[in-house]
Specification:
about 260 residues; 4-stranded antiparallel beta sheet; globular
Length: about 260
Amino acid sequence: MNAAGTLEVRGLSKSFGGIHAVKDISFDVQPGEIVGLIGPNGAGKTTCFNLITGFYSPSEGRVHFRGSDVTGEKPYRMARLGIVRSFQKTNILKSLTVFENVLTGHYLEARQPLWRTFFPGARVRSTERAVRESAERIVHTMGLAQRMDVPAYMLSCGELRLLEVALALSAKPEILMLDEPAAGLNSQEAKTFGEILRKLRGALVQSILIVEHNMGLVMGVCDRVVVMHFGEKLAEGAPAEVQSDARVIEAYLGRGKKS
């Protein structure tokens, strides 16, 4: 019997006009794991994300979470169940501060009137306190405490990436799914981002599934890596195993053939 919180992807496939974007993909994400999903552009990684989170319906295959079949559930239902994803582009409110953005995310998740974010009434002060404490914890964990009162439009690219993850954490996920969170980051920012991801596990989220092109980040933070190529799973294993896999070296890293 699988542990509570396990995400199981079994035989997942998706075709668009006869083109197999994803073909017979299977893998698990166990509680406490950080799993990387890698592959060249067009490998099917983001499509796979969309299938898991309900943005697409699979042509074949099933998705199970916590022992239940959640295949084809609407995205908002997936989020309610605990599977939450970030996007390469997100709706950060640039005129609000870092803290206000995260606080607003909490209220949207709780389906509370937005005005309560800034004008709490006497009857909701206890809940208000808990919400603010949760938002503060997220901001601190994401390394944004020193920028808490800074408007989002003044943040660097790296800080915006951290804020995107903070907004996803406002939904209180069990599994956090990140789609290229290190895009646009320099090497130092990516290193810092990786350190923060490791802190999140077990603190604010059980497990993380990450699509990423930054191999340094993936190999440095992931417990296990799944490699996709032309919509299919090419390899799976620990980072060191994947790095030394001849198929991956040839098909993905591009060093398998002599020039």
